Amino acid sequence: MKATEVPEIAGAYLFEPTPYADERGFFCRTFDADVVRSVGLDPHAFVQDSVSRSVRGVLRGMHLRSGAGEAKLVRCSYGKIFDVVVDLRPNSPTYCNRAFFELSGETQKTVYIPAGCAHGFQALTEVADTSYRIDRQHDPSEDVTIAFDDPELAIPWPLPVTSMSQRDREAPSLAEVLKHKEG
């Protein structure tokens, strides 16, 4: 497994495993504490694992947490997703930058998203399972959602949106979220 810095987002990494394939399918390591430690992250900081299942066209995001934020490792364990990270840390050298990834069950690549970055994805296959390893217990009172179609973010979602949560449909613009954060 190798770790590569994501140039668009300071502190973000892409972890690429080495799948071993044969006639039975494949095997690969999707988390390696030594590799995580080698880029300065504490592998023991992750306290919660979650998974979501989405169907083609479903969009989830753009989400982040207020307060101390939330760092996470995100991987598509089955199917394929278009994954998006937006740096919303005011003191970051990559503030307001965006990064896009295609994550899939075939490659098992994982993206490390630092606290303070917004995250969202769209399912590209009929079924897409997305796994999250999160560094804090979830507190719904800290949930922040930004409109997925905010022109300021200009995210090039690859498919028409077939479904999303009510929370995502009613999300405020980035400007509104930032104004509320400052006020």
From TrEMBL:
InterPro entries reported in the protein's UniProt record: RmlC-like (IPR000888), RmlC-like_jellyroll (IPR014710), RmlC_Cupin_sf (IPR011051)
SUPFAM superfamilies reported for this sequence: RmlC-like cupins
Pathway given in the UniProt record: Carbohydrate biosynthesis; dTDP-L-rhamnose biosynthesis
Any one GO cellular component localisation term in the record: cytosol
UniProt keyword annotation of Methyltransferase present: no
Any Pfam family matching the protein: dTDP_sugar_isom
Active site annotation, chain numbering: 63, 132
Superkingdom, natural source: Bacteria
Keyword set, alphabetical order: Isomerase
Record CDD domains: cupin_RmlC
Reaction(s) catalysed by this chain's protein: dTDP-4-dehydro-6-deoxy-alpha-D-glucose = dTDP-4-dehydro-beta-L-rhamnose
One BP term from GO: dTDP-rhamnose biosynthetic process
UniProt EC number: 5.1.3.13
Alphabetized GO MF terms: dTDP-4-dehydrorhamnose 3,5-epimerase activity
Assembly and interaction partners: Homodimer.
Family: Belongs to the dTDP-4-dehydrorhamnose 3,5-epimerase family.
Physiological role: Catalyzes the epimerization of the C3' and C5'positions of dTDP-6-deoxy-D-xylo-4-hexulose, forming dTDP-6-deoxy-L-lyxo-4-hexulose.
Name assigned to this protein: dTDP-4-dehydrorhamnose 3,5-epimerase
Lineage start: Bacteria, Bacillati, Actinomycetota, Actinomycetes, Kitasatosporales
